[in-house]
């Protein structure tokens, strides 16, 4: 589900504000998704991603740029102010005309592609920080659906098919929310969207849950027992292990 530019910018700002509030006085709290990381590292990582995207859009870059390494350069006392400044830089850059095309994961795409990516980036790291420091805020269903769509295309297809988990395995993800979505991922990597029929037989598996829980599972933040699984459970448990083994970002 794509959001309008204004709505997406608001989502980024709200998520960033929530992240900063949760991080305040909790910088030393460990973050479950990233072994060895504390809240401090999540703030630094998210802020550096914001700055990288802002720089890329400002430059109208047609090739990937390098993310600046801020480790050791921002004190704890200055960290949240630095983070908020980066959010302002990002939103300023995203105000570029809609027809501006910049590099985006191997090709060129409108600025709005980065806007949607930054919604997901900021919302999920708010969730990381809030989970470390207390109770995470509810992820809006529309954001979860668009995040799930991104995660299926960018990560899940590859993890399911390379190497193949099970001969002929077809995975069906079905949300149980009012704004329901459905994804059918075939062993070949072919992806079907919409109300695809659930796969049948020993190589078929369906996973059901709220859009937020499904998204959190696809990015290693929700355990499989929190979801309803029918079919080839062994293959899904192996897929979950592959998701959980995805590398922690460099910083």
In short:
Helices cover 48% and strands 13% of the residues. The strands form two sheets. It has a five-stranded mixed beta sheet with strand order 5-4-3-6-7. It has a two-stranded antiparallel sheet with strand order 1-2.
Task: Give the radius of gyration.
Answer: 19 Å
Low-confidence stretches: none
The first-to-last residue Cα distance is 29 Å
Order of helices and strands: HHHEEHHEEEEHEH
How big a fraction of the residues is strand? 5-15%
Mean of the pLDDT scores?
88
Largest sheet: 5 strands, mixed
Structural class computed from helices and strand pairing: alpha+beta
**Neighbour order of strands in the largest sheet:** 5-4-3-6-7
| Tally of DSSP helical segments | 7
Question: What's the helical proportion of residues?
Answer: 40-55%
DSSP, total strands: 7
Report the principal-axis shape.
globular
Note the topology:
Blueprint: H1 5-23, H2 39-58, H3 76-93, E1 101-104, E2 107-110, H4 111-133, H5 141-161, E3 170-175, E4 182-186, E5 191-193, E6 204-209, H6 211-218, E7 228-231, H7 233-244
Parallel strand pairs: 3-6
Antiparallel strand pairs: 1-2, 3-4, 4-5, 6-7
Descriptive notes:
By secondary structure, the protein is α+β, with helices and mostly antiparallel strands. It is 48% helix and 13% strand. The chain is built from seven helices and seven strands, in the order αααββααββββαβα. A hairpin with a 6-residue loop joins strand 3 and strand 4.
Features:
251 residues; alpha+beta; five-stranded mixed β-sheet; two-stranded antiparallel ribbon; 7 helices; 7 strands; 48% helix
